[in-house]
Amino acid sequence: MIPIVCIVGKSKSGKTTLIEKLIPELKKLGYRVATVKHDTHGFEVDKEGKDSWRHKQAGAKLVMLSSPKKIALIEDVERDSKLEELREWFVKDVDIIITEGYKGSSHPKIEVSRKERHAELLCTRDDNLIAVATDQKFELGVPCFDLNDAKGLASFIEEKFLK
Amino acid sequence: MIPIVCIVGKSKSGKTTLIEKLIPELKKLGYRVATVKHDTHGFEVDKEGKDSWRHKQAGAKLVMLSSPKKIALIEDVERDSKLEELREWFVKDVDIIITEGYKGSSHPKIEVSRKERHAELLCTRDDNLIAVATDQKFELGVPCFDLNDAKGLASFIEEKFLK
Fold first, then answer.
1. Distance in angstroms (rounded) separating the CA atoms of residues B157 and B162
2. What residues of chain A lie within 8 A of the CB of B13, using their CB?
3. CB-based contact (8 Å) between A41 and chain B?
4. ipTM more than 0.85?
5. What is the DSSP string of B18-37?
6. Of 3.20.20.120, 3.20.20.100, 3.40.50.300, 3.40.50.10490, which CATH number belongs to B4-40+80-162?
7. Which residues are registered as beta bridge partners of B144?
8. For the whole model, what pTM was predicted?
9. Does B107 touch chain A (CB under 8 A)?
10. What are the residue boundaries of the structural domains of chain A, listed by start?
11. Which of the four pLDDT bands, split at 50, 70 and 90, describes residue B148?
12. For residues B91, B97, B103 and B107, what is the CA-based torsion angle, rounded to 10 degrees?
């Protein structure tokens, strides 16, 4: 079963920035990474006028683009998908799934917190919080990493889920 | 097994346009449609600067975006995927897969041909050609549909693969 680790945090806490640093560190350790971005507002990925966009506009439920280097897919769904469903439906050939968001899931979470933005955390240990990446001090009984210590966090994730 | 029908044709013959007409007709008949666009040159779908784009740039092999209405996925691969693989890996909850391209596959094919562009066809019956959509006359022993007869083609596809 491919492990899932959620990077959570309040708005503008720096989740994407941390994930951007974490991915190369996990790759350096030899792991293939998948990410999931949770977008509760909806999103637009395809470009107007492209053939795949035209297929979708015409009413296709699922549109795939396939090339020798890359596959892309856009699918209509009727409800928010669970991480376990996304893993089952779409994920193969990777070692770990890192999510941005999904604070409501039961998967292990690392919270990002920046003093400049928020003094309090979103999660407690009851939320399956396993670490914090922060420039503040928290006494929670879980490891606190510096916001820039992606290398340390990657080793922590390796130790906990990949060995 | 979800049936696969390939819409093939020479360059600029009108494949996308036909597919755009075919999808709503298949939907009217009650079917859920997936499409695959074969892109041998590679493509760009995500938008620069978006969080998912940043995950991908940072080195994620697979990036997913999930919302209550839509799922999107971009994955790096090392070779061109077969249609059967795409079906197995990604497709569920649809009744038929329509492809744009894949003239080299062994799946049933409908060729689009416009006089204005090309006088000859790409396929013969040996290529598993099952119909032609055209404004020309061809004697091939397979049904010829008018370029605009998406309704007729949808019924033909229904009869052959969905009943």
1. 7
2. none
3. yes
4. yes
5. HHHHHHHHHHHTT--EEEEE
6. 3.40.50.300
7. B132
8. 0.93
9. no
10. 4-40+80-162, 44-77
11. very high
12. 90
